[in-house]
């Protein structure tokens, strides 16, 4: 089942790439059909999902790959990965719909996005460090080609920076994996086995260094301050669908690595360095918010709010390591909030980037100063953007509120000082409101004149994303029933 | 005792390739110019036969031939298969470059002789046999480099020859010193005698031998000939000399270091330092190269560094030998794929001229992408498994910093490979001269690039099978 979910888009991508005779229209239909099939498969998976025991996985599949070095093809899901799988499938389907009328090499574009979808899903189901790394690295290669091939502006340069920076990060991650492998007896790369063994407990120096290597690798991908500098140019020059996938899915690989690898495998080191992680989270929250406030380029602004939103996740996960003996409930809430934030940020930011892409398509600029009174000529566009902005700033009724409320409820209970990051929410609210005011209100002027309202494919790619955000905001139980037991299990593993 | 017998049947792959070389040489001189392809078919059949014989030998038990001077173990058999198969791929490159030319069959004969030498180098467990392997692998090489013709080819040949002669002398000097110290050139005897010999003298002898082998491998500090030869010589010569000799030389280096008295691990540290030097030097020098073949030449210098990493873990990690052999196999096919792409586009000698290749020749662009991403170490390609396991071996053997160097240098190398394949997928330039259509004589190297890239991918995906075949002991 899981293998089908991972390899179906990869196989479709291979066919699309290998057969030049496929017409553009056929390529677009294949893309949408496969994305729908993926969503259905993951829906079936969710319907049949039963919470596995601690450090166990559902729908497990295992097959020897390189037994000589203790690596196998091992996949499985639990409450931490299942919501991310679903979010990934939704975001990729939205991109397939959004790109339905693109005329720039549709066959290659469809192949590339299906490839990215397969490897992204692969990252979230991998239960072997090397398998995880394979998919993690291939996602970088795929995104490089998306930015370089379909981007605008100085996209070649941004793609290069993205590739070099995140590749360096991935090698740091690999180094950490090798450290875990060498420390384990018998040597293995299997994730559940390493979680059970916690090979570096009792060795603070080596544990700290391996954690540092893994953290740097994941922090580049997340990204947190000070490893975020690749993100704004990559987002600004990427195509709308590329930005959506990059922000919604690829960034989550970093934070997912925290909960899947760093925390359960190196609990002792995680607790020892928890304050550093919390500090990085708080700095990312505040820095991302303030720098976003200073932007005049709308897409760049959204990119910096990603740094801010990912900061909340890092903050919450760091807080989990601060105390061990009590407040298990609060720490579990923090983890739940962090994973909810991963899903929520994925849905909302994907919607915002797709909407920003409409600006580029219509008027060729993201500069907020070039617009004014856009609500007049494009009321539906303005409404969608306003909903996205309110969702992103954490208004109750949207998923962002559920996520950030739990993050702060959990974190502040453990460490009251983390309340300082609440300032980030305030700044984010201010910057989104200011952006709405600048671009959409007042008399219609500048590039707003003649701005055509959203078309069907734009509408139907964005509406489901925002609708799901509302669904989670109103009925969080759908998500929390799956997440809760997994969060409690993770808190137990970190407390060992 | 079997070790004391001649047992020439154990050297079947070497005999096949050498005799095949003689037949190609003699037969080629009777073939008319337009029938020289017969020599190529013959050489290909010979190499296929040797690959088959070596694969069969792999299934057999570990044995010693020629009174213990030649080991037929997993390392030798792996080197035989890799060397013969890679030379077979080189024939595909050659078919495009020199098919129908005056020197065609001579080149094939020289390739076969040099391949025999590489196999002998890999199996030698006696310093005198090592010298024989070195000379047999080197002398045809000078000829192959020089046959390319032109001023650049002549300069490359001269440089290769001078440095080869120098390192050959150092090798023989080292052997002389070690023989004087131990009273024998046999590895088994050296292992017993060297711990009692004066350390400085042993050091001088071993360094001499290492120098000779590093020249063959093209590693720092004896790498100067590599970029010139890769750029100046014909593409057949460049592909061969940056790939096949490394197979024999690296196995020989491993055997040498594994034979030395372990003691305080000085030799392992030297191997680690040499590895670092090659990786760094090759990477930094490759940075601003404009000629794809010169860039590849420097890249192979850095790859020797990666290949030296498991040597630093010899005897300390079970991963060391299999990871070296795996890396050799993956590197050989990946490197051939990259060179074969340059052979299919002989007039494109600037990185910038590859701009837009993906539009005109998507297959060739894909092969180049696989080859270059492979050399970087992107999963799931073969070299990734090589880098992963060699770095693991180094860490397992106590050299954590060397594993760090592997990762850092992989990241460094990405930049210059990106300078090459970035433009490939960009919009074609307006004044671009364009690319030759498919077919013609360049179809051979293009097909070779495809085959080599596919094998490079297959090695990564089927890594478990290959690893199981390579996981065995070295003959003591």
UniProtKB/TrEMBL annotation, chain A:
GO CC annotations, alphabetized: endomembrane system; membrane
GO biological process, one term: ATP synthesis coupled electron transport
Superkingdom assignment: Bacteria
Entries under Pfam families matching the protein: Proton_antipo_M (PF00361)
Location of the protein in the cell: Endomembrane system; Membrane
InterPro entries xrefs: NADH_Q_OxRdtase_chainM/4, NADH_UbQ_OxRdtase, ND/Mrp_TM
Transmembrane portions of the chain: 6-22, 29-49, 80-100, 107-124, 130-150, 162-183, 203-220, 240-261, 273-294, 301-322, 342-360, 381-402, 408-433
Domain NADH:quinone oxidoreductase/Mrp antiporter transmembrane: start-end pairs: 126-422
EC number: 1.6.5.-
MF terms in GO: NADH dehydrogenase (ubiquinone) activity; NADH dehydrogenase activity; ubiquinone binding
First-tier enzyme category under EC: oxidoreductase
Membrane topology: Multi-pass membrane protein
UniProt keyword terms in alphabetical order: Membrane, Oxidoreductase, Transmembrane, Transmembrane helix
NCBIfam families named among the record's database cross-references: NDH_I_M (TIGR01972)
Family: Belongs to the complex I subunit 4 family.
Name this polypeptide is given: NADH-quinone oxidoreductase subunit M
Organismal lineage: Bacteria, Bacillati, Actinomycetota, Actinomycetes, Micrococcales
């Amino acid at each position: 089942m899981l293998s089908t979910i991972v390899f179906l888009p990869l196989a479709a991508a291979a066919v699309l790439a290998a057969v030049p005779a496929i017409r553009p229209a056929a390529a677009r239909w294949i893309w949408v059909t496969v994305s729908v099939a993926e969503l259905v498969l993951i829906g079936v998976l969710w319907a049949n999902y039963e919470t596995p025991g601690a450090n166990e996985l559902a729908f497990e599949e295992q097959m020897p790959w390189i037994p000589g070095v203790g690596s196998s093809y091992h996949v499985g899901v639990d409450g931490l990965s299942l919501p991310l799988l679903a979010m990934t499938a939704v975001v990729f389907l939205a991109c397939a719909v959004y790109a339905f009328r693109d005329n720039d090499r549709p066959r290659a574009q469809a192949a590339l996005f299906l490839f990215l979808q397969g490897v992204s899903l692969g990252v979230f189901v991998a239960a072997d460090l090397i398998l995880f790394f394979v998919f993690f690295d291939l996602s970088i290669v795929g995104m490089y080609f998306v930015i370089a091939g379909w981007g605008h502006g100085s996209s070649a340069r941004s793609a290069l920076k993205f590739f070099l920076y995140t590749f360096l990060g991935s090698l740091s991650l690999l180094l950490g994996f090798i450290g875990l492998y060498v420390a384990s007896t018998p040597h293995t790369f299997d994730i559940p086995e390493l979680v059970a063994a916690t090979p570096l407990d009792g060795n603070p120096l080596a544990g700290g260094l391996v954690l540092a290597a893994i953290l740097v690798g994941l922090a580049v991908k997340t990204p947190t301050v000070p490893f975020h500098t690749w993100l704004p140019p990559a987002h600004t020059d990427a195509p709308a669908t590329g930005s959506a996938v990059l922000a919604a899915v690829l960034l989550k690989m970093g934070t997912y690595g925290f909960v899947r690898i760093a925390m359960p495998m190196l609990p002792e080191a995680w607790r020892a360095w928890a304050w550093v992680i919390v500090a990085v989270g708080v700095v990312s929250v505040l820095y991302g918010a303030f720098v976003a406030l200073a932007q005049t380029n709308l897409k760049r602004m959204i990119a910096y709010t990603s740094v801010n939103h990912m900061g909340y996740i890092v903050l919450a996960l760091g807080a989990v390591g601060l105390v061990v003996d009590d407040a298990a409930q609060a720490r579990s809430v923090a983890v739940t909030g962090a994973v909810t934030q991963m899903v929520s940020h994925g849905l909302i930011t994907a919607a915002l980037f797709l909407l920003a892409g409409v600006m580029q398509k219509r008027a060729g600029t993201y500069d907020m100063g070039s617009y004014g009174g856009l609500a007049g000529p494009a009321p539906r566009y303005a409404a969608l953007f306003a909903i996205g902005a309110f969702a992103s700033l954490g208004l109750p009724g949207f998923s962002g509120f559920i996520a950030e409320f739990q993050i702060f409820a959990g974190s502040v209970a453990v460490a009251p000082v983390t309340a300082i990051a609440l300032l980030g929410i305030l700044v984010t609210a201010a910057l989104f409101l200011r952006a709405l005011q600048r671009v959409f209100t007042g008399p219609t002027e500048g590039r707003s004149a003649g701005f055509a309202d959203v078309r069907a494919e734009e509408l139907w790619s964005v509406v489901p994303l925002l609708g799901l955000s509302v669904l989670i905001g109103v009925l969080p139980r759908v998500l929390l029933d799956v997440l809760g037991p997994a969060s409690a299990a993770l808190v137990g593993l970190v407390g060992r | 005792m079997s070790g004391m017998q001649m047992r020439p049947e154990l050297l079947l792959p070497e005999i096949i390739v050498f005799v095949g070389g003689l037949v190609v040489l003699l037969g080629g001189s009777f073939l008319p110019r337009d029938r020289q392809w017969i020599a190529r078919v013959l050489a290909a059949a010979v190499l296929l036969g040797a690959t088959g014989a070596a694969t069969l030998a792999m299934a057999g038990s570990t044995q010693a031939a020629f009174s213990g001077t030649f080991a037929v173990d997993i390392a030798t058999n792996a080197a035989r298969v890799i060397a013969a198969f890679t030379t077979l791929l080189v024939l595909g490159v050659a078919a495009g470059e020199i098919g129908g030319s005056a020197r065609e069959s001579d080149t094939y004969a020289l390739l076969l002789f040099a391949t025999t030498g590489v196999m002998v180098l890999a199996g030698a467990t006696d310093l005198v046999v090592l010298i024989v392997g070195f000379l047999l692998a080197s002398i045809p090489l000078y000829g192959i480099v020089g046959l390319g013709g032109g001023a650049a080819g002549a300069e490359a040949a001269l440089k290769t020859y001078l440095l080869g002669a120098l390192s050959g002398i150092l090798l023989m000097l080292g052997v002389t010193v070690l023989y004087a110290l131990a009273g024998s050139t046999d590895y088994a005897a050296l292992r017993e005698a060297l711990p009692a010999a004066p350390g400085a003298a042993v050091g001088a002898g071993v360094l001499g031998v290492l120098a000779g082998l590093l020249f063959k491998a093209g590693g720092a500090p004896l790498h100067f000939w590599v970029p010139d030869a890769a750029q100046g010589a014909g593409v057949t010569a460049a592909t061969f000399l940056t790939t096949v000799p490394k197979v024999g030389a690296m196995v020989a280096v491993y055997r040498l270091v594994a034979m030395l008295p372990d003691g305080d691990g000085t030799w392992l540290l030297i191997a680690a330092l040499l590895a670092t030097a090659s990786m760094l030097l090759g990477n930094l020098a490759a940075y601003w190269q404009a000629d794809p073949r010169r860039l590849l030449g420097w890249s192979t210098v850095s790859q020797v560094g990666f290949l030296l990493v498991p040597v630093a873990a010899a005897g300390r990690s079970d991963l060391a030998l299999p990871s070296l052999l795996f890396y050799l196999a993956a590197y050989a096919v990946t490197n051939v794929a990259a060179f074969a792409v340059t052979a299919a586009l002989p007039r494109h000698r600037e990185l910038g001229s590859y701009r837009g290749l993906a539009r005109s020749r998507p297959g060739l662009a894909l092969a180049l992408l696989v080859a270059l991403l492979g050399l970087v170490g992107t999963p799931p390609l073969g070299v990734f498994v090589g880098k992963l396991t060699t770095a693991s071996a180094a860490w397992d053997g106590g050299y954590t910093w060397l594993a760090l160097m592997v990762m850092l240098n992989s990241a460094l190398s990405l930049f210059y490979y990106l300078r090459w394949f970035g433009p490939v997928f960009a919009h074609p330039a307006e004044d671009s001269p364009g690319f030759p259509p498919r077919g013609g004589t360049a179809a051979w190297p293009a097909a070779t690039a495809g085959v080599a890239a596919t094998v490079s991918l297959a090695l990564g995906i089927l890594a478990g099978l290959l690893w199981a075949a390579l996981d065995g002991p070295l003959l003591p």
